[in-house]
Amino acid sequence: MMNHSLKSQCKASPGTVIQGKWHHHRYTIIKELGKGANGIVYLAQSLNGLVALKMSDNSMSITSEVNVLKSFAKVQGSTLGPCLLDVDDWEIRIGKISYYVMEYIEGPDLLTYINKKGPEWTNVFVLQLLSDLEQLHQNGWVFGDLKPENLIITGPPPSIRCIDVGGTTLQGRAIKEFTEFFDRGYWGLGSRKAEASYDLFSVAMIMLNTAYPNRFNKTTGGMSQLKSMIHQKKELKRIEDILIKALQGDYASASQMRLDMLHALNHVPKRPQVTTRKSTHQPVTVSRGKYSKQKKQGGMLETIIIASVICIFYIFYIYDHL
Fold it and tell me: Residue ranges of the alpha helices (H) in the chain?
């Protein structure tokens, strides 16, 4: 365990120069971007431009997050998290502090963007997010601490990026970090086991958060309170069935939730599916063959819908900046 003196050294003031012990790269601290239980993230100037640098007195935490970013890098075309640029130690008089350097993703967070541009962007970004989560889950990870503050909008064209991988957890383990409002355990609607349905619960709560920017306090908790909050907002009632399935843990994958959203947004009636639900807290499983058939049937429709929606909003984006 690190001593308090070493931990205090993670607090770097603007102008501080961090030089790596092994790679000798130099980074000049500009300002603090955020802090959490496992470290502090800074905006820094490098030889090649602006970067985000995270340092911690917990070297194991740094190693874990670096492994997550390396895993993301193996997914071709992935926009799940920032690119990893450097990993090193910073030697100071009383010891050394581990840090890693990553791509600096610049832009407003999800709620800030939607507040400025309008609620019609919510579904566009959620569809993008579900695609990214499907890739993440396929590679054996769960994001864990999924919330609007960890979702940055970049562009043009506008696109969603995930930052702060500190809560990302291997599937099957206990979630490492969470924020109560987006945590199903807090609402009494499931465990904190790292599985796809945990992230999908958080996605549903993110959508509620866009309708309630100041969030709301837990009173009765459970589905009764969340259903009541959904019924009070017309933009949520349109996709009520999808939100409830996600909150109850009835989706086995992000791609299933995404396909349901595409159908709902295009008002396309779905073929009824016969399923047996053993528990409202367990995901409904779908066989590989059945899912492949559903995906093939919906593939062309999905491509047309999402392309049309994004093109329309991109036109609005260009018009706003003329």
Answer: 4-8, 59-73, 110-117, 121-138, 196-211, 222-231, 234-237, 240-248, 254-265, 288-320
